[in-house]
Write a structure and sequence with these properties.
GO cellular component, one term: cytosol
Structural class: alpha+beta
Subcellular location: Peroxisome
Bound molecules: ligand 2P0
Strand content: 15-25%
Number of helices: 8
CATH class of the largest domain: Alpha Beta
Largest sheet: 5 strands, mixed
Distance between the termini: 43 Å
Keywords: ATP-binding, Lipid biosynthesis, Lipid metabolism, Lyase, Nucleotide-binding, Peroxisome, Steroid biosynthesis, Steroid metabolism, Sterol biosynthesis, Sterol metabolism
Shape: globular
Organism: Morella rubra (Chinese bayberry)
EC number: 4.1.1.33
């Protein structure tokens, strides 16, 4: 009847995050519990974000989801775990304008339609799953009037994709690995908000929009199974480095921040190389180079590293840090606007874009949410 025609909707927008202390390796694959803490910076939502609309209606027959306009399956454990956890925490919802009243228990039988858009390449190593799952959990929590705080929501988003838990907060965020077997204490906490370090500028060179070859999930499973270096990293290196990074962020100490960020990116890729069979994210020449007029992808990575390392050594104090994830894009942090301008000049000199349109692939943004 008429009363059955309502649709209740919520739209949310969530930026992606870039890890400066990397998450790589799980101790529990189903709950997504990591082998070490990680720290990230949440980007400005303008450039790299997911927009998700969630809708509930008695006229929907099943839960369905569309990603970038294409229907995708929700049957996987990760989506199912997130939906179940959110539904279990749903509250009463009343929309007087629509004459809608939903009781807590009604959410179990109300179906959802979800539409999600990324304004950046999906699965190209720019943490699209991070923004996507964080946004989904956040939007559903709003729709269903879930009262849990962001930290509790982050533990739900974590079950969708590990790095997603860090996108529930802006600014600088730590994913605490936790000790419990049930994962309740494996969640995100905000270290500093988006206004804390205003000088910092993040520059991302989108090298290729093609999808990466080894997924993070598979890659880290193989690393956990085969790499001895990972055991050393998780037990000895990351615990100390996390504390040092927290200090660097607190004090806005760019020299330490840059040293730790570069070192951790390099160790993450060393751990990938220590995996059997080895994983090469930094010189993956299997990707076609669409946006950049480069002979080989590996030249970009090694050249960015050497350009930045050389430049930093020639100055009194580091000007720029680099970090690379499980995909073909370069993320750089400049200590301030002046360093960012100089960095862009250098990038444009060493990697001249082949057309004006390619200039768009340099994204200049603030880290603020
Ligand atoms: C990070 N990455 O800390 C690290 C650095 C990639 C390199 O988190 O299996 O997509 O969904 O938990 O979160 C990528 O891993 O993996 C990632 P799942 P996820 O940002």
């Amino acid at each position: 009847g008429e009363a059955e025609k309502w649709v209740l909707m919520v739209t949310a927008q969530t930026p992606t995050n870039i890890a400066v202390i990397k998450y790589w390796g799980k101790r529990d694959e189903n709950l997504i519990l990591p082998v070490n803490d990680s720290i990230s910076v949440t980007l400005d939502p303008e450039h790299l974000c997911t927009t998700t609309t969630v809708a509930a209606s008695p006229s929907f027959d099943s839960d369905r989801m569309w990603l970038n306009g294409k229907e995708i399956s929700l049957s996987g454990d990760r989506y199912q775990n997130c939906l179940r956890e959110i539904r279990a925490r749903a509250g009463d919802v009343e929309d007087e304008g629509k004459g809608v009243k939903i009781a807590k228990k009604d959410w179990e039988k109300l179906h959802l339609h979800i539409a999600s858009y990324n304004n950046f390449p999906t699965a190209a190593g720019l943490a699209s799953s991070a923004a996507g799952l964080a946004c989904l959990v956040f939007a559903l929590a709003k729709l269903m009037n879930v009262k849990d705080d962001q930290s509790k929501l982050s533990a739900i988003a974590r079950q969708g994709s590990g790095s997603a838990c860090r996108s529930l907060y802006g600014g600088f965020v730590k994913w605490v690995m936790g000790k419990d077997d049930d994962g309740k204490d494996s969640l995100a906490v905000q270290l500093a908000d988006e206004k804390h370090w205003d000088d910092l500028v993040i520059i991302i060179a989108v090298v290729s929009s093609s999808q990466k070859e080894t997924s993070s999930t598979t890659g880290m499973r193989e690393t956990v199974e085969t790499s001895l270096l990972l055991k050393h990293r998780a037990k000895e290196v990351v615990p100390k480095r996390t504390l040092q990074m927290e200090e660097a962020i607190k004090n806005r100490d760019f020299a330490s921040f840059a040293q730790l960020t570069c070192a951790d990116s390099n160790q993450f890729h060393a751990v990938c190389l220590d995996t059997s069979p080895p994983i090469f994210y930094m010189n993956d020449t299997s990707h076609s180079i669409k946006l950049w007029n480069l002979a080989l992808m590996k030249q970009l990575f090694s050249r960015i590293i050497s350009i930045v390392e050389k430049w930093n050594r020639s100055e009194e104090t580091p000007q720029v840090a680099y970090t690379f994830d499980a995909g073909p894009n370069a993320v750089m942090f400049a200590r301030n606007r002046k360093a960012a301008t100089l960095l862009l000049q250098r990038l444009l000199f060493y990697f001249p874009p082949s057309s004006a349109a390619d200039l768009d692939s340099y994204i200049l943004g603030d880290k603020s949410i």
